[in-house]
Design brief:
This protein is an alpha/beta fold and 326 residues long. It has two domains: 161 residues, D-Maltodextrin-Binding Protein, domain 2 (3-Layer(aba) Sandwich), CATH 3.40.190; 135 residues, Periplasmic binding protein-like II (D-Maltodextrin-Binding Protein, domain 2), CATH 3.40.190.10. The chain is built from eleven helices and ten strands. Strands 1, 2, 3, 4, 5, 6, 7, 8, 9 and 10 form a ten-stranded mixed β-sheet that branches. Helix 5 links the parallel strand 5 and strand 6. Keywords: Signal. It comes from Ancylobacter radicis. Pfam families: NMT1_3.
Amino acid sequence: MKFSKGSKLTAALAGLALMTGLAMAQQPAFFRIGTGGTAGTYYPVGGLIANAISANGDKGVPGLVATAVASNGSVANVNAIQSGSLESGFSQSDVAYWAYTGTGLYEGKPKVEDLRIIATLYPETIHLVAAKSANIKSVKDLKGKRVALDEPGSGTLVDARIVLAAYGLTEKDITPEYLKPGPAGDRLRDGALDAFFFVGGYPTGAISELASSSGIELVPITGPEVDQLLAKYQFFAKDKVPADTYKGVGATETISVNAQWLTSTKQPDQLVYDIVKVLWNDASRASLDAGHAKGKLITLPNATKGLGIPLHPGAERFYKEAGVLK
């Protein structure tokens, strides 16, 4: 059978289109995860997750190349997701809530209404650290005391104000100082401060050193005031610092915000579904358990706790199928 020049050209173009389509289908999908500083917890955990979900033989999401990107943390990651310069990122759940609702740190700024959650990862505990000599047994006992609330612009400062308000206190009822936990710990050791707030995973080095050198009290954040606070602010959750996490300190009831993995409604539902499905498989579980101390706390039952803002539809679909979400 003979073919005309036109037929040959048509066949060649069809073949070229097919090859181009196959090449495009085989192009990898890139999915960046904004984390934090390289010396913190977000960065190594982000690396573990990126490795787990990236395509690797028969493991991971087919065609996906995920990378952990160092950043300035929660606010920077939310802003990068909003601008499209990152596909996803880690954030404290309170920062995510403020961004979504235009409150707290985002007061007066446009709401980031397309922000969505892939998973809650692990708790970041609210520590209320007090000097042993200060006789502070409850949040109410802070009245009249010298208390560091962290620097303006920090998430800790906003959280500290919420906790104080739950117990009927404001900054007018204390002598407030606006110091980071390091300098606050030095002042507490020197007797120039009675207590300070810190939000972060336990144990944290600065508090461990303070407990060993000077002795501290961890003040419980509990009671009916907390029940009302949790009902009002869904990004908080109950938490407990186990006994002897810090030298000489017994088990202490408190609350926490969560480290969360966020994305945007711009990300395809099927892609996020596939990512979440791989995140919670046995291979990823083994990697998280072995890779970092916080990895053991990243569990499927905790993935939908303390959300504060909506789940991404792809993630929500998986959690419903897995039975952890109604």
